[in-house]
Amino acid sequence: MNQNYGSKRLVVGAHYGLRDWLSQRVTAALMALFTIALLVQVLMPGELGYDRWAGIFSSQWMKVLTFVTIISLAWHAWVGVRDIWMDYVKPVGTRLVLQVFTIAWLVGCAGWAVQVLWRL
Amino acid sequence: MADTIKQRPVYRNIHISQIVSYRLPPSGIVSILHRVSGAMIFFLLPFIIWMFDTSVSSEISYERFTSAFTAGAGIFPGWFIKLVVLALIWGYLHHFCAGVRHLWMDATHNTTKAFGRSSALTVLVVAVVLTLLLGAKLFGLY
Lengths: 120, 142
Prior knowledge:
The structure holds 2 protein chains of 2 kinds. Chain A has helices at residues 18-42, 50-58, 60-88, 92-119. By secondary structure, chain A is mostly helical. The longest helix of chain A is centred in the middle third of the chain and has 29 residues, at 60-88. Chain A is elongated and about 65 Å long. The mean pLDDT of chain A is 91. In chain B, helix 2 crosses helix 6 (113-138). Chains A and B meet through helix 1, helix 2, helix 3 and helix 4 of A and helix 2, helix 3 and helix 5 of B.
């Protein structure tokens, strides 16, 4: 009755998509927070040139929030793009190739963004 | 026995040729555009990070960033870069608003047919209006 592994494993029912669902929402909320924090600073009065723009990202708390946003975006996009492949691409081989491409693309982009951020 | 199995109705997703004639409710339009805008942002990520890189790295690269919108960058003319950025602005706004709609529905359990319709229309309109406002700024109308 309580055996939930091997051939008796319950493959349907609650909780199987909960982690993806919840992580997509938590990461979305974090990115929304970043968006608002950035907007508030951009809309402050004064000329928005290089100094002020780069200055926004060089404060330590903004660096941390931007870093969290980069990781959140990669995670959020992984869940979303994987859903797209699972909905529209049925052949297992093609789907695997696309999923590997998605991971490589997101990890590469996140690495580049972090590099830019940590140079400031 | 075999006959009953044969008579079972088969439900399939709509075929790609039916997409144009298939009429979606506003919430359906918001839903598919949520997916389209998300995919667009995903594929344009290198361009977004390139903009981030050139705009913050140094004053010289900042010049390159701003001149990309007038003189162009690489093989891409300035107007083309502006159009891509306009598409990104809409994509971000739509994805953001549709996401807030999701979070709102999750938090309040307000999943009535009427709210689904009115909130979907709100998302579509807000995203387009804000895109027009920011787009006018981008193309130097004010």
